[in-house]
Amino acid sequence: MKQSRMFIPTLREVPAEAEIASHQLLLRAGFIRQLVSGVYTYLPLGYRVLRKIEQIVREEMNRAGAQELLMPAIQPAELWKETGRWDAYGPELMRLKDRHDRDFVLGPTHEEVITSLVRDHINTYKKLPLNLYQIQTKYRDEVRPRFGVLRSREFIMKDAYSFDVDREGLDKSFQAMYEAYQHIFTRCGVDFRAVEADAGAIGGSDTYEFMVLSDVGEDTIAYCRECSYSANLEKAEVRVKETGTQEGVEDPLPLEKVHTPDARTVEQIRDFFNISEQQIIKSLMYKVDEQYVLALVRGDHELNDLKLKNLFGGNVIEMATDRDVQTLMGTPTGFMGPVDVNRDKIKVVADHAVKYMVNAVTGANEQDYHYQNVNVERDFTVDQYADIRNITEKDQCPKCGGEIAFARGIEVGHVFKLGTKYSEAMGAKFLDENGKEQVMIMGCYGIGISRTMQAVAEQRHDEDGIQWPWTVAPFHIHLIPVNVKKDIQRETAEQLYQKLQDEGYEVLFDDRAERAGVKFKDSDLIGIPIRITIGGKIEEGLVEVKLRHNGEVYEIPVEELLTRLNKIVADLI
Ligand code: ATP
Ligand code: MG
User: Domains in the chain, ordered, with CATH?
Assistant: First the structure.
């Protein structure tokens, strides 16, 4: 492609709404443009990247035995009512009406449509397993669309759905998708991890999120420095064996009530008593569905409300209101504690670490008072000890005991065992070998195609621009004659442009009559992996090859260019 003809609207200024590097660079380099909040055009350069990612995804999905189809973006509300998601999905669902006042949605995902399709056409075990996928535009009215196409309201997703006769079949389908995802993200050239995640209310046991490691990621990943364990912070289990407890160090002292005016938070209590946060029991009141729960964690730990919810098998967890706390405990929230709790109405659950605390400080259930020297069993009891807190970097790996570290990640893919949630609700059944009716077992597998494009740019850039990996780059080679007014430069470039394309390279030919500085700046910004420059040295028969990702430069005699290039490229892939 000749650059003089290509639509690449680059920007000099960083647009104000772009907070992170990848968003700024994709806008500046002319890959995307915003139409309205969270809705983007993929410009020619951006669309080329998108198509390459799609192609990688297609190849790997097909190789794993999935079949491509394309479902509509517009879906009738009736289907969503069948599964209950018309009500449950909330304001993220884009709803619309047709001229007959019938309700529709713009699909945020396609479980309903695919399940209705399969239930209508598959009724025997002989036609299963089946895995169908599409690459299609999705709509979600996100509360906070941001970071360009990382979190947009209209985006491109690959979604696949598997249908199996039993759990074993699902395990196999799931494993095939998990492996396909490993290939896909490896081929896209990103540093990623498959992370154990929470299955949520859907109840499937296995779910993994594929995370591109990046400081701008919205999710925290806890991973082991020694083994392959990695999990979402909300999911990571904490080993029961506690380190750094005060077990056996002190003798229990008599319980004492202390006047602590205005000391409500862990920090205020720590300073008031001049103790460490490890000596404080934090008491938090939650409501899990209809059950009130007093949850106790050590002062330096963070309660994990997802774990607490799952402990009760609940659907909804929320913090009790100040008014609820006043009614149930007779105290403002900052002075709550586990001593003398009305156990008819409230369940008391403590994190395992609380069991080992000696002479702790807690709220006294009275405004402006705390207890000190509180001891478990002597001063209060609990209904249950459980893992209800977030893992910390001081904890051990739940798998191997190794050191835990935290990283941030961008979720680019998700593999999920759905089980029978949708097939049950929508009656997707088949006859098994014995002629008995069974419900299909489903899995679903998503990849954010547009999000992946930006995640690559977020991970692979420097201060001058993007550094696209070969596999997803908009072009392979950026061919730049420094001065097109010099015949020899222009003519050599024209010849190379043809030759390189004949060899199968995708070439962006900067045939513009711009200054060298401008051309190089644009070239760094756009980030094509290989730049070939034809400048003054062509008089001696030399051209320059420069690699975008590490700045390495080679001066190569023009007649050797193709052979040398093939070697350089082989090393890049
Ligand atoms: P998130 O937690 O980031 O909102 P999600 O759990 O809602 O993601 P899924 O429903 O699993 O996402 O969708 C599958 C994939 O679609 C995600 O892994 C992600 O890559 C992509 N995706 C989801 N929401 C968006 C969005 N608003 N913009 C761009 N990509 C998205
Ligand atoms: Mg979401």
Answer: 3-7+32-237+406-458 (3.30.930.10), 256-386 (3.90.960.10), 470-572 (3.40.50.800)
pLDDT tens digits along 517-529: 999 999 999 999 9
The pLDDT of 131-150, averaged and rounded, is: 97
β 317-319/281-288 pair status: antiparallel
Cα R_g (the chain), whole angstroms: 30
Euclidean distance between the first and final Cα of the chain, in Å?
Answer: 22
Q: Which letter does DSSP use for residue 365 in this model?
A: S
Helix (H, G, I), strand (E, B), or coil: what is residue 273? helix
Distance 412 CA to ligand 1 centre (A): 7
- Ligand minimally distant from the alpha carbon of residue 455: 1
Give the Cα separation of 247 and 338 in Å (integer).
20
Three-state DSSP class for 426?
helix
Q: Which two tokens stand for residue 10?
A: 């680059």
At position 258, the amino acid (one-letter code) is V
pLDDT digits (tens, 9 = 90+) for 360-413: 999 999 999 999 999 999 999 999 999 999 999 999 999 999 999 999 999 999
Distance (Å) from CA 446 to ligand 1 centroid: 8
